[in-house]
Amino acid sequence: MFQKDDYVFYESGGICQISDIQKAPLDSMPSDRLYYVMQSLHDRNSVMYIPVDNDRIFVRKLLNREEASSLVKQIAAVEAIEESNSKLLRTKYIEAMRTHDPIEWVRVIKTVYHRANNCTTRTQRLSETERSFAETAKRYLYTELALALEMKEYEMEDYITSCIQMAE
């Protein structure tokens, strides 16, 4: 069970903070169940109510400092997704994002980055969908790492880049 003020990854809301744990926050909910009251860090107007005893909804605790540091050290070795067929690549992006695993977010980001850098003509542009996968993966990854490492989210890209350069 999570505690009040814990940060979690929630499959439908991204990175959230548990602001409360209470019985039936809304009249329409069964009064005999406890609910996590969560607020998305990326949408401050969004409040979600998740039953504490629900095992069908994916919610996980975020990485701790040690796990985040270890992940950053692994980033250089993470390989991009190899797929030339754009429909199959989109399916692989979806599968990677559905794992809710930060390493898979890195794979998505690296794949889009490499594909963007290999576009040599105007007709080889990245699709809006592909850019969207990368932006979502970055938002989730940078927020989770920033919380674990006690840094600012906007500092994460430079921090990761410098860690990769030091490892080379």
Give a verbal description of the structure.
There is one protein chain. By secondary structure, the protein is of the alpha+beta class. It has two domains: 7-61; 65-167, Methane Monooxygenase Hydroxylase, Chain G, domain 1. It contains five helices and five strands; from the N terminus they run βββββααααα. It has helices spanning 65-74, 86-98, 102-117, 128-149, 156-167, and strands at residues 7-10, 14-23, 34-40, 47-51, 59-61. Strands 4-3-2-1-5 form a five-stranded antiparallel β-sheet. The chain is globular, with a radius of gyration of 18 Å. The protein starts with 6 loop residues before the first strand and ends with a helix. The model has no long low-confidence stretch (mean pLDDT 91).
